[in-house]
Each structure stands twice: as C-alpha cells, then as structure tokens.
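job 3f2a | input accepted
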Amino acid sequence: MAVKLSERRMALDKYLRAIVKKRCGSENVYYQPPANLRMKYPCICYERPKIRNRDADDRVYWQTFHYTVTVIDTKPDSEMTAAMGELAKASHDRQFISDNLYHDVFSVWY
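job 3f2a | predicted structure (110 res):
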C-alpha cells in the first residue's frame, strides 16, 4: 500500500525545515506560497507540479510525487543548496538571480 500524499509531503517538509534551521536558525519553508505572501529570507519554497503513476492490472500500484524546490538565499554559494544536492533523487535544474537573491531550483522525486 502506498504512503499517503500528505505523509510524504510532511516528511519532505521536515527535511527542508532541518536544512533551513541549520543554515539560519529559523524554519522559513513555504509550500506553494500565495503571491501576496511576504517570505523571509533565506528560505526554501516548494510546490508539487506532477504525480507519476505506475499501473498494473488496471490499477495504480505506485505513485511518485515530483516537487520543484527552490532555495532562495542572499549568498551565491548557499549551504542550503549544497544540502539539497545531497538529497537522493534530487537534481539541480538551474540558478537565477532576482531582486538580489540567488535562486537554486531543484527537481525532487519523493
């Protein structure tokens, strides 16, 4: 039986909060933040853009959830970026700068 979506997301959330807390002492982690939310930096924000299903016998027997995780920091070489790179099934997609903040975007199957 597959683990519930909320349980998987909460496990990922816990991991991300530990990364931010180690870096800056706070837990600035945001899941699918609304546009009007004022985030505190450094932080990690993430969203779930897709789900991959594995089918057999006309049923879904396994699901893998894809998350886009963005590390946002004032430092170009953030410790949070290095920690995200150590997560299994995470790959670095790109880096960009916006409003003098460095954004490192990761794809994570969790």
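job 3f2a | The first strand starts at residue 29 and ends at 31.
job 3f2a | closed
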